[in-house]
Each structure stands twice: as C-alpha cells, then as structure tokens.
Amino acid sequence: MKWSVQQLLSFKGRGLHIDETVDVSEIKEIDREIRGIAPVQVTGDAHFSSHAVTFKLEITGEMILPCARTLQDVTYPFAIAAAEIFQLDGKATFIEDDEVHELKDNTVDLLPYIKERILLEKPLRIFSDKNEASAPVSGTGWELNVKDKEEKAAIDPRLKELEKFFDNENNMT
C-alpha cells in the first residue's frame, strides 16, 4: 500500500485498482479497547488529476471490542468508505474543505490513513446481544431498577395546581 510518485505516474494512463488484505494489528497498541482485529480488506481505485491522486477506498473488516455491560468480547463488523487525496506537486490548488495529504519522502503510503479511518469508526460503546453472560442485576448494597415503559411520571405536588389551569383552558375552547 506504498508507492513512489514515479510508480503512481506510470499507472496514470491505465488506472490503478486496489484489492488487498492488510494487517493492521498495530491498532491494538494505539487503542487498548480493541482486543483484536482481523486482517482488513481494502478495495478501491486511484483517480489521477494533473497534480494530485485521489484514492476512493472501501475498507471492510471486523474488530473485537468489550461489551459496555459485561466486558465480554463482541465482534464488531465495519465497512468504511474513504477518499484520500495526495498532492503530487506543490502546484495544485484545492478547496479549503478538502483534506489533502502532502507526500513524505516522495511516496504515498495509505496504511496510516487506513488505520486512522478504522480508529475513527470504532464506536464509543457496544453491547452484546448474548444473554449467556448477562450483567448482574444486584450486588452488595445495590440493585438494578428497571422501570416499566407504561409507568407514568409522578407529578411534582408543587405543580399539581397548574394541572387544573390547563384542564380549565382546554374546556373553554
């Protein structure tokens, strides 16, 4: 997933199609919540302009994250659509909103940007659908309270008199 500018320019006429499986297991050291990540499938195409190359990518895979309730492993599949633009020379002008990457050592390396997209895709919390490892409903000094959906919210007694006002107003119209 790394090309020099000369290699990329050789693909300019015929195009560049990407279909690779990439190992991004180093992400586990960056974000300790990610307990495991399978090799990621990256597919897409490179589109060339006179001064830049745009990679339109589809990144798919799955990672293992802890359940927010039980801390059990949960497999989280992801599919990310990404567009990365690299400036091939200093002559190009871009719209301010475009995130354009400059070349380092005259090479284009997509792997750091793929890792960044995966980290951005990771949810803040995830819940397991399995009931086998459910969270405890009580413990020493605490108990889980689950309110019924039909339970009506209690009206503050200080506001009880206002309820009569709204009933009278509805009767007048």
From TrEMBL:
Pfam families: YceD. It comes from the Bacteria. This is DUF177 domain-containing protein.
